[in-house]
Amino acid sequence: SLPDLDLLHDPEDELLCSNLMDLVQATLGRAPLGSKRCSRLLMPTQLLAQVRTELLRLACSEPCGLRGALLDLCVEHSKACHDVGHIAVDPTVVPTFQLTLVLRLDSRLWPKIQGLFSSGPAFTPLKLSTGFRVIKKKLYSSEQLLIEEC
């Protein structure tokens, strides 16, 4: 519940998450979506806020908080999932959990971007959908995966 989340609120994680979201946006800004193509993937403000809240929620039960996270960024289109980046939230901390953030391209754009996944240089801004999925894997335990769909 929301009041319980307030009790676990960590100001350091808040600042770290803001910096992480800047890094996520920069990584998406130079995402490789094909052999020689780059596209600037744009996160809508609503998506940015939702992802930020979800990452903080998933980190609150971890021994090192958000500092112990490894974040894998993926972009899903059609039935394929493209890896666009890996971020160690705090490289000085031994990771305790891995988050895979699966973002989706706005499906209304698909006909316009089919050519992006062929060869040839290009640069095109693309908007992401507000739907996403986060997969959490604890690296210190044999617990099952936790998959959150938003």
Write the topology of this structure:
Layout: H1 2-7, H2 11-29, E1 31-32, E2 38-42, H3 45-59, E3 69-77, E4 80-88, E5 97-105, H4 110-113, E6 123-138, E7 146-149
Parallel strand pairs: 2-6, 3-5
Antiparallel strand pairs: 1-2, 3-4, 5-6, 6-7
Helix pairs in contact: 2-3
InterPro entries: RTP801-like, RTP801-like_C_sf
Family: Belongs to the DDIT4 family.
Organism: Himantopus himantopus
Question: Care to describe what's here?
Answer:
- 29% of the residues lie in helices and 36% in strands.
- With 150 residues, it is of the alpha/beta class.
- The protein has one domain (5-107, 124-139): Ribosomal Protein L22, Chain A (Alpha-Beta Complex).
- Strands 1, 2, 3, 4, 5, 6 and 7 form a seven-stranded mixed β-sheet that branches.
- Helix 2 (11-29) packs across helix 3.
- The two termini are 17 Å apart.
- The model is unreliable at 1-5 (pLDDT under 50).
